[in-house]
Write a structure and sequence with these properties.
heterodimer; A: 384 residues; alpha/beta; Rossmann fold; 14 strands; 42% helix; 18% strand; B: mainly beta; three-stranded antiparallel sheet; 9 strands
C-alpha cells in the first residue's frame, strides 16, 4: 500500500483531515477564537501565543509558526481573529501563497467581542460547509510528512514503540515522503551516532551545533538537567539518564540518512529525514511539527502521555503491556507483542504502517475523538 | 521465569519485562542467555546488573554509555538513579570541567 486518501489543497499539498482553523493572532483574542470554534462543527481552536511585546527572532518564529499551523495541509480554510488590522494583515500575507480561503475579524473594528464572535462564526460556518463538499482522492506517500515524537517514555519506548515508528519513517521516506524528528535535548548521549547518518558535512555540523548549543545553555545556567529530564514519570518507567532516553528516542528516526536540519516550525522542502530543533516537552514539540506541515504524528508512549494536536493527527503507540491495559483509552496502537511474544520490530512496524495509512485516509485516533489536544508555540526570548 | 532483555553483548545491564522480588531467577534474553538472581525488588521496565560494576565505571546499554556508577554494583542489583548518574546536561558540574 503506497497511497492514501487525502484532500488536495490549492498549493498542491495534501491534507489527511479537512479542518477549518480558527486562530488568534495574539493572546488577547483567544476568548473570541474559542467561542467561534465552539460554535462551528469542523473547526479547530488555535490559541494565540503572545505576539504583542515580542521582538526579533522570538517574534519572527512565533508569527511564522502561527502561519505554519494555517499552512498545514490538514487545514482547508482559516478564520483569523485579531485585535487590530496591522498584525492580522501580517499573518494573512504569510498564508496567502497557499491559496486557502481566509477570513479576518479584527475585534476593535468589529465593535467588541459579541460582534466579533458573530462575524467569525458566520465566516467559519461558511468555510466548514464549503470544506465538506471536498472528497478524498488517492495520493502517493510522497505527499506525506510524518512527525516523530515520544512522550511519557520508559524503557519499553526504546525497545518496542520507537523502533516500530522508525520502520514506518523509513517506509514513508523510501516512498519519497518526509519525516521530522525533534526534541533537541533528547539527543544528549546519542548525537554522535545520529550525526553519522547526515547526508553531508554541512548537515552533520549544523545538527551537532544545535545539540551542543542546547547543552551549553544548560551548562551556562549552572543547572543539572536531571531536575527536568528524564522526567519523574520517565524515571518511574525505568529510564535512568538522559543518555539512555536519547539512545531509545533516536530509534524513532529509523535508519534513513539525515538530509536536513530545521528551525522551530520550519517546513522541510526536500524528501527524507529531517531534524527540528525544539524543546523536549510534547506540546511545544508537536506544535513545531504541526507548524512545519506534518499531517500525521507518530507518538510513542511508555508510561502514558495522552496529548494530541488539533492540526496534526497524532497516533499513540505503546509497547508497555501495563499501559496497554490501564491507559488504553489514550493509546491507538499496541506493539507490546515485541516484548511479550517475540514479534520482530519489522513485523510490528509493518502493522503500524498499515494502521497509519488507514489513519491518513480518515480513521480517527483517540486524541481526535476525545479532543485531547493542545497547541503552544515555544518562546525564544522575553517580551518587552 | 522473569525475563530481562540484553541489547548488546557488551552491556552490563538488562531491562526487565517482568517485575521481580529478591531472589527471583531472571532469564536473560536477546543478546544474553544466562540466568541471574535478582538482589532487589525491581519493577517492570527497570534494569538489573548482569555483571559486577565498579564505582565510576560506565553503565552500558545498547552497547553505549548511558551513565556512570556512583557506587559498586553487584550482579542482580537494581541499576537506577540511586546508583547511576548522567554525564550530560550537567551544569551543576561546571566548576569541575
Amino acid at each position: 500500500m503506497t497511497t492514501f486518501l487525502g484532500y488536495e489543497r490549492p498549493d498542491g499539498k495534501v491534507g489527511i483531515r479537512n479542518l477549518v482553523a480558527v486562530i488568534s493572532v495574539m493572546d488577547t483574542c483567544n476568548p473570541v477564537t474559542r467561542a467561534v470554534a465552539q460554535a462551528v462543527k469542523g473547526t479547530v481552536y488555535l490559541p494565540g501565543s503572545f505576539i504583542r511585546g515580542q521582538l526579533g527572532n522570538d517574534r519572527a518564529i512565533t508569527l511564522k509558526a502561527t502561519a505554519g499551523l494555517c499552512l498545514n495541509p490538514n487545514i482547508a480554510a482559516v478564520v483569523i481573529i485579531g485585535l487590530e488590522p496591522t498584525t492580522t494583515r501580517e499573518l494573512q500575507e504569510l498564508i496567502k501563497p497557499s491559496g486557502k480561503p481566509v477570513a479576518v475579524v479584527n475585534i476593535q473594528l468589529a465593535g467588541g467581542t459579541i460582534n466579533s464572535i458573530a462575524d467569525g462564526t458566520r465566516a467559519a460556518a461558511r468555510f466548514a460547509r464549503d470544506a465538506s463538499r471536498q472528497v478524498r482522492k488517492l495520493f502517493p506517500l510522497s505527499k506525506l510528512t510524518v512527525g516523530l515524537e515520544c512522550g511519557g517514555s520508559d524503557t519499553t519506548s526504546g525497545l518496542a514503540s520507537n523502533p516500530s515508528i522508525g520502520v514506518v519513517a523509513d517506509k514513508v521516506i523510501a516512498a519519497g515522503g518526509k519525516a521530522v524528528i525533534s526534541e533537541t535535548s533528547e539527543f544528549f548521549g546519542a548525537e554522535h551516532l545520529f550525526a553519522e547518518r547526515a547526508a553531508n558535512a554541512a548537515v552533520k555540523e549544523r545538527f551537532l551545533c544545535e545539540v551542543n548549543e542546547a547543552e551549553q545553555d544548560i551548562i551556562k545556567q549552572g543547572v543539572d538537567l536531571r531536575g527536568s529530564n528524564p522526567t519523574p514519570d520517565n524515571i518511574r518507567g525505568g529510564l535512568t539518564t538522559i543518555e539512555e532516553k536519547a539512545l531509545g528516542a533516536m530509534a524513532k528516526a529509523g535508519s534513513s540518512p539525515l538530509v536536513g536540519v530545521l528551525g522551530y516550525g520550519e517546513m522541510p522542502t526536500r524528501p527524507g529525514l529531517h531534524f527540528m530543533n525544539t524543546p523536549a516537552p510534547a506540546v511545544e514539540s508537536i506544535t513545531g511539527l504541526a507548524a512545519a506541515g506534518c499531517q500525521i504524528g507518530l507518538f510513542s508512549t511508555g508510561v502514558g502521555n495522552p496529548i494530541g494536536h488539533p492540526v496534526m493527527t497524532v497516533v499513540k503507540v505503546s509497547g508497555n503491556r501495563n499501559t496497554i491495559d490501564t491507559f488504553w483509552d489514550n493509546v491507538d496502537f499496541d506493539v507490546s507483542s515485541v516484548l511479550e511474544k517475540n514479534e520482530t520490530i519489522m513485523s510490528a512496524g509493518n502493522r503500524l504502517y498499515d494502521y497509519a495509512i488507514g489513519v491518513a485516509s480518515g480513521e480517527m485516533t483517540t486524541s481526535e475523538v476525545l479532543s485531547v489536544h493542545e497547541s503552544a508555540i515555544s518562546r525564544f526570548g522575553l517580551s518587552m | 521465569m522473569a525475563r530481562a532483555f540484553v541489547l548488546s553483548t557488551s552491556d552490563n545491564v538488562a531491562t526487565l519485562v517482568d517485575p521481580v522480588r529478591i531472589g527471583d531467577a531472571v532469564s536473560l534474553v536477546g543478546e544474553g542467555s544466562a540466568i541471574v538472581n535478582a538482589k532487589a525488588e525491581i519493577a517492570y521496565g527497570h534494569k538489573l546488573a548482569t555483571r559486577a560494576i565498579a564505582k565510576g565505571e560506565a553503565i552500558l546499554k545498547y552497547g553505549k554509555v548511558i551513565g556512570q556508577a556512583t557506587q559498586a554494583i553487584s550482579v542482580g542489583d537494581h541499576v537506577h538513579v540511586h546508583n547511576v548518574e548522567a554525564l550530560r546536561g550537567r551544569g551543576d558540574k561546571r566548576e569541575a570541567s
